Amino acid sequence: MNDVEIQQLRAFLSVAQTKNFTKSAELMFISQSTVTMRIKALEQALGKRLFERDNRQVLLTPAGKEFLDYARRIIDLVEEGSRKVNVEETYEDSLVVGSLHSLWNYLLFPIMKEFQGKHPRTALRFITGHSWDIVQQILDGVIDFGIVLIPPTLSEIEVLPFKKEEIRLVSNIHSGFTEEIDLTNINDLPYIHMDWGPNYSRWFEENIGKHTFSLMVDHASLYVQYLQSGDYIGLLPSVIADTFIQRGELKSLSFRSKTKPPIIQSYIIYPKRKLDLIKKLLEHMLQA
User: Is 48 exposed, middle or buried (0-12, 13-18, 19+ CB in 10 A)?
Assistant: First the structure.
């Protein structure tokens, strides 16, 4: 196999996204012939066709689909390496921290802000993703330190319990709900659904069953906005619920279920080989 160049990978990723050589050329500020040349060179280096193209469309071949994730990860690594090299001229340390959107918004922001105040010579970069995204980017070397809800079972990654959160049923403060709510009847209520991890999903299915609800959300802030804006009810981890209850923007509702709701456990994860690099942050997090 011939050498693969970074610019070839960038051209490949752009065409895979736009499905148009002309559009990719415009976005990359190069000529269409240059994009075509880079794609051909990459295909020759790999010994596989990456795109099927005709006069109307450009589609990834099976080989192109297989190669896509690897190309993204290579570019991510190169860009992160470049950032690390450049930041070392100004700061003593550089850390990339990854976590879920819901944890950033309602748990990690004040903790990280305090850490930054104590360690102003440490450059921080924050990445948002699902638990498996964070794990993969730790394996790839992009992320140095992660906080997730689903812990990996990999020998090269250290896993430590972080925070435990209870489940609360909440609604808008002006809602008419006053009596205890039986969750087995949730299908008859204006309930909004969000999945809070595998333990929660198992408990929900065992106690309430499998349902398709009229509104299902995969974004914590959007979930809270719906709960604030209408006569809805929803289940939230206490770290989120208590924030809005204390502000007087949501109210806690009494409820019953067949079995006790699970504790939502978050975990600190990091590559064992980077313990020295993340030690200050780890100590700060465990004291938070």
Answer: middle
